[in-house]
Amino acid sequence: MRRGLLLLLVACASPRPEQPPPAQDRAERSRALFLQASRVFLHPRCVNCHPDGDSPHQGMEARLHDPPVLRGVADEGVVGMRCDSCHQEHNLELARVPGAPHWHLAPRFMAWEGKSPRQICEQMKDPQRNGSRTLSQIVEHNAHDKLVAWGWSPGHGREPAPGTQEELGKLVAAWVESGAECPAEGARP
Amino acid sequence: MAITRREFVGGLLISLAAGRVLARTRLAQASSGAGLTPNVFVHVAPDGAVTIVCHRSEMGQGVRSTLPALLADELGADPQRVRIDQADGDKKYGDQNTDGSSSIRNRYEELRRVAAAARAMLIAAAAKKWGVPADSLQARDHAVWNGKRSLGFGELADAAGKLPVPKPEEIKLRPRSEMKHVFRALPLVDGPAIVNGAAKFGADLRLEGMLVAVIARPPVVGGKVVRFDPKRALAVPGVKRVIQMPQPQGAVGFQPWGGVAVLAENTWAAMRGREALQIEWDPGANASYDSDRYRGDLSASVHKPGKPARNVGDVESALAKAARLVEAEYHVPHLAHVPMEPPAALARFGDGACEVWAPTQNPQAARTEIARVLGIPEEKTTCHVTFLGGAFGRKSKADFVSEAAFLAREARVPVRVQWTREDDVRHDYYNAVNTQLLTAGLDSEGKVIAWRQRTAFPPIATTFDASVAGPREGDLQQGVTDLPLAVPNVRAETCDAPAHARIGWLRSVYNIFHAFAAGSFIDELAHARKRDPRESLLEVIGPPRIVTLAELGIPQLRNYGAPLEKHPIDTARLRTVIERATKMANWDNRSTRALGLAAHRSFLCYVAAVISVVRDRAGKIAVDEAWVAADAGTVVNVDRARSQMEGAVLFGMSHAFYGGATMKGGVTEQSNFHDYRLIRMSQAPRRIHVEIVESEGPPCGIGEPGVPPIAPAIANAIFALTGQRIRELPLMRAGVV
Amino acid sequence: MIRLQVNGANRELDVDPEMPLLWALRDVLGLTGTKYGCGQALCGACTVHLDGEVVRSCVTPVGRAQGRSVITIEGLSPDGSHPLQKAWCDLAVPQCGFCQAGQIMTAAALLAKSPKPRDEEIDHSLAGNLCRCGTYGRIRAAIKRAAGMAEE
Lengths: 189, 737, 152
Description:
Chain A is mainly alpha-helical. Chain A is built from eight helices and four strands, in the order αααββββααααα.
């Protein structure tokens, strides 16, 4: 999976700047870029904590988080079962507990669970549903956020998200630069 | 280390403050001094303080709130002035194995006599002082009374202590009406110490200079260390020693499991040190164990005739001419104990003697095993008993205690062995894995005319004798040979099942799977015959009667060590608990509620359970209410009997929903609560209703018998809700929970 | 050197900041009321309060408690008189007792935030505290009693 993403990155994320592509090609490329990035968004490492319900999931098979936890009003858990009752700012290898700074759930309006790449794309561009972020803030978030970074160093034998955070950052940046177009509804990476 | 001075007791960091710790008994010392000490259980001091020894281990069943209260009541003591001393392991107390739901049922009369003897001596002393006949006096409220005149126990203690101890046949027990406290709910004596964190469990004691040991044990039972390199472990800050454990010889028994121990200044360093150990293992013969494949072996085993264990009439002819056959195969996997407190023990060794503190159910067996491991006489061993943070049979086995003893000798400092949860799950004495085949023949009117039950499981005997290849007739007294059936042709057979894991007893033991199969099958028969499950169950059990050995078709019955004359198999009692549980649950008007029923006699006690299941929002099965009726004969502490039944519902639910240790390559696949799951509060039934049948009959077991009917009642309720018949546990495997 | 408050007293601990708070409390400070049950934040036996919030001390590096306040079961009340401790005794909640310190600490945090918790709140907040003996029903009732609510 990692190899595939890298190959595509070579093809897509390193355009020759001296020859800007025609508008139609550019939109096509933008859609392809997002589709590529959605391999990360739809990976269980990421989608498990972007649930559509009130509880996160665990594992590659996305089983319900156990112990049973709820997002609570601030997406940080409920009293007695806050995310940071157990999750630290780093992974605990002996205890298997994953951790990163500000471990919490994505708000419900940012749910990715059960969504298509197009739906995630539209959601990501919509300030109502992306935490009032500008596109450049979206790029920054994907490229540098420390909780996002956990997806590539999940610890304890967990499969990391495809590629690297740097590659994702470049993909999302290129997607924004190319017009932030969303793929067709049926399109899958 | 930050230790306050007051925690030292003669160089020990062990606090012995009354009521806070299960202190070692001081009756031995007291007996040499003043006061009354008629036996090893009771002491009355000249200041009036009464000390009563609790010789059994407290593991949640409430024995410390019950047995001493029984003695105190028989004595006539004021409970406020009674101190409880926790007995060390010592044969002078008789059997101390806190197991088999036996503390009350086996010692009830004997211990009342012990207290009655002390009472008789106090009365005799008062009679002498007053010059009146003893039979005109009464002992109550911590004093002996003659009308309005009284002498306190303390005032009488010295004089009473000089009198002869009455002979057992001279001792009269109080009539029930004179017992002021027991036979109802008794206070929980250790409640305050538990809720403020003062109660001392196995891992809570410390000795000066102590090291903490965490042991890397062979992943497969019977495996060996080929070689190991301690360098990286010793490089972990805080790690002091790395010591190889002795290799078990022959049948595994209670022997330490072997491996390599890392000893450190604190538990964290010991755990990290163990991670850093490099060990090459020889997994040994059990590396071939694959529990999925073994399941197939057990299934093949029960599809062949086994050795007869029970025979009435002629089952094969009856099956051959039956109008209809009903047949079902049931499977229950290995179950793990997972008490909330993983095993831990503290030991010190010096001058050829070893002293241990441990959460053990059986301190005498612990001493025997320590003596064996160290090669010292048993008299040179001492075993103090701490609180047990759950046990369920796990802590009857002394392996973890002798590990500490061995390491204390080798390291020449006190050592506390700490099992991690992973150790506990992977190196348990698992309950036997079981497959059964039940076949019934019905006549043209739907009456059950034949019942054949084949059962295959690796029995506990395999842990002590490697040559045992399957259950024996005696193993079937837990729910097969003692099962009352109003069926003219009955046959039970044992089928081969060699052991590849360490097998032990777990709360209600073989009853768990035998009740699951029989309780489910009787429900299947009801549906096959289109009958109400309760009416069908009562019909299969048959009319109220005492079931004889001839009717059971067996030459003898161990009957949990009790004589059949005193504790017969009484179907009237079984029927009564069924009627009471179903009445509580409003069985006849259950309308759309999905209720399941099962009933079982074990440890001489009769329990019926009705379970209600619903679908939760995610469409999964949830238990929303439970009703349990139990007839345990005389019940000394009604509240602890109730709490045991409440707990049994949850314990049985955990087995039913999630229970199951599985092995691949001989290694247990589960390791902690994420993959050996237990029921959580959010899954607990909203209500559990318990009725304890009022009875003056001889006392029966309480701790275990609530468990067996739970899983079949759940399975039967699921059938009522969904039409899906569950024949294999855990339910998780079928995806319904 | 880790400086923190434990049950109101200032403490200095010369330990690896990665050592879980549980072992610092138990092995270094001798506060054994907080229990080890799983080491993976799955059972809740090790529950303590860090600045008033529930943490599982078995996975909380002691370094995280630097400059902060830790309350353990020994510090919940000076004399076992917290309403939860009293309710626990009144209703004879404990069986073996091993998990109860953790249960009580979680319940105390719940009542501090939600003095009259609904049934679901109790279940959700205590879902991280396992009890093998099966005292859940009495725990629910004791929390309600401590909160001055009807127990059924």
